[in-house]
Design brief:
single chain; two-stranded antiparallel sheet; 8-stranded antiparallel barrel; Porin; alpha+beta; 260 residues
Length: 260
């Protein structure tokens, strides 16, 4: 009877241990966060607004990006620009497509971003295929005025772009965001004396650097989830109060009293 009781008690203890272990494994690990990776497709929304206010510039742009991990995504952009400029002695036209490819880096921590928020920077390589034409120009001098034109011609331009900005998911799988960009022309396609005053995708052509700001709306498609380990925050240990040391004279005095 004693052996049966001991066997039952041992069996109950074993079942209790297994149940406790099962509960431990079912509990979520606070140091792990699940991040969805997404494919994004979006359009730039300021170009049509600018054209509505000033029809001298039409710019259309869209992009597709894919998350590689919780911090890095690759992006491909494409667009088309049509720019016209005229004044009393000058008429200029340029149009053509442009393309950009690069990588964007999310500087937010995974537990903050959660696949919904992006705040960071990126670097892109840009390529534009433009066709420009000076249909009329007039030059006045001492002997009179000269009028002429430059025929239409096509060429390539190459540039680098550094961007920084913010994006947030307002509704399920719908995000809006903005980007500030700085562009540097690598190859203008023409001699420096006859460079176009504007390049599709790049902007003003007469400057060493071109600046811009764009606003985007995008549609996000989750395609995979990954688990990311969160770095634990360092715990500050409380400072221990150091006990006051007794003066040497008082300790000697105590010893003398004990000796007495």
């Amino acid at each position: 009877m004693k052996k049966i009781s001991a066997y039952i008690i041992s069996l109950l203890a074993l079942l209790n241990c297994l149940s406790a272990r099962g509960q431990e494994t079912e509990q979520p690990d606070d140091s792990i966060v699940v991040v969805p990776l997404k494919i994004r497709s979006g359009v730039e929304i300021t170009g049509p607004v600018i054209y509505f206010l000033d029809n001298s510039l039409l710019s259309l742009e869209g992009f597709v990006s894919t998350d590689i991990n919780e911090n890095i995504s690759v992006i491909l952009c494409g667009g088309y620009s049509d720019y016209n400029y005229s004044q009393y002695n000058y008429e200029f036209k340029i149009k053509g497509p442009f393309f950009e490819a690069g990588a964007d880096f999310n500087l937010l921590e995974p537990e903050v971003a959660l696949g919904k928020y992006w705040a960071g920077a990126g670097i892109h390589y840009g390529l534009t295929r433009f066709t420009s034409e000076t249909s009329f120009f007039k030059h006045d001098n001492y002997w009179g005025s000269v009028s002429s034109s430059l025929p239409s011609h096509s060429n390539w331009g190459h540039y680098l772009e550094i961007v920084g900005g913010f994006r947030a998911e307002l509704f399920r799988n719908i995000s809006i965001g903005w980007l500030v960009s700085i562009r540097k022309m690598i190859y203008a396609g023409t001699d420096k004396d006859i460079r176009p005053i504007y390049y599709p995708g790049y902007g003003t052509g007469g400057r060493t650097l071109s600046y811009g700001i764009n606003y985007y709306i995008s549609w996000n498609i989750p395609y995979r989830e990954i688990k990311v380990k969160i770095k634990p925050e360092p715990v500050e240990e409380p400072e221990e109060d150091e006990g006051e040391e007794l003066p040497e004279d008082s300790s000697n005095l105590g010893r003398q009293r004990i000796g007495r």
